[in-house]
């Protein structure tokens, strides 16, 4: 049916394909979600009272160039920080650690519920309302802290984590509905690569807002306000499926319907087949691969700045810059890997399964090797930073493999599977900061080397599991009508969708097109 009226006007005004509009809005969404996630890491420095250490453990740490600075300069710097801060709180290191980890307590809990909600009501509103709740909570953070201190901040950070939990499963479901298999690596890099933009922009913009005595509350107002603005545009421009989009062109709609295998585009799906899903080896090895990646990734996010500062003795300004370099490399390489992966799949130079295994290996084994090399670089700053940058650059292969593999094996239940995978993997965000703290009480080179060897073992071990049992093919339980039951299935039939004998047209609640 040809577009008419306001739909035709909007279609011509937004002249790029609607799936690219979705991709761009997705990039901004992930970037903003990560700025809200990481902004506390730098803001908390100006929120608490700070007493410079009077001594430092020597021996297995690097020489500190800042010791050459006179005591007068140090005192002036400390006094300037104290005088320009808006408000100070007396929170010890243990309290600060709990506050920084609070986000992940909420984040883990809402992955699976978020995936189920996305499949029932549509990815658009699950994603939009989730990020809106996080944005509102971020804007309210300064007021909550002023009223209830550390307890209030802990609770509001848990709420922010609860809001962001459904984001990844909702995006995976939306991509399964909007992106053909031959374009998924590029879209995965574009959308999920937004996380690296957030990792770069969050600390950098926070630093600008906090410079020269800036009010720390402004950090939360800016990032939370941006999220609210994003929500308005997202609700106007994006929809759960191509068939529910009011001003998509007929050409693009027909192209997507012809190239996307998710049957949820055309009919209401049966209940989530948990009985088969929980027995799927392919899904469990995907969980293992995701755990391996998150183990290394979260360690880099939370603890690499500490390594640069406490071991390599970079000053605060240089620590921020050095910490950003790996994510810049990761973001750039995510597009390089994604484009090449999509090209190989489109040209049929290798299968989807082979492609996912290649880039899982690149994003696991290669970073593990570079991280170990960095740990043996000693006090050579240039060499250590170079190895860390290389490790994160190769970790970008994750966006062309593990991150999007759920929509390969289960395009109809991509939201639930992604929630299951990411929810379990995100537990690494709670474990790794605590484990690194146990292994590095004195911040020495030898202690950190042990922490890095732990990352190496986890990355290599999980990669081996994925190489053996990983898959890029749709699993039978994702569409029983199409694939049937395997011969060795002995657990009874899966639940099916009730047949409505009175109505010939079924219009699901989650924006899918009717079945005639």
From TrEMBL:
TM annotation in the entry: 20-45, 98-118, 125-145, 187-206, 218-239, 283-304, 324-345, 357-378, 384-402, 414-436, 448-469
Localization, UniProt: Membrane
A GO molecular function held by the record: symporter activity
Protein's GO biological process: monoatomic anion transport
Keywords, alphabetical: Membrane, Symport, Transmembrane, Transmembrane helix, Transport
Domain (Major facilitator superfamily (MFS) profile): residue spans on this chain: 21-474
InterPro entries the record matches: MFS (IPR011701), MFS_dom (IPR020846), MFS_Na/Anion_cotransporter (IPR050382), MFS_trans_sf (IPR036259)
Keyword Transport: yes
Location, primary (coarse class): membrane
Gene Ontology CC terms, in alphabetical order: membrane
Membrane topology type: Multi-pass membrane protein
Keyword Transport: yes
Record-given protein name: (African queen) hypothetical protein
Protein's organism: Danaus chrysippus (African queen)
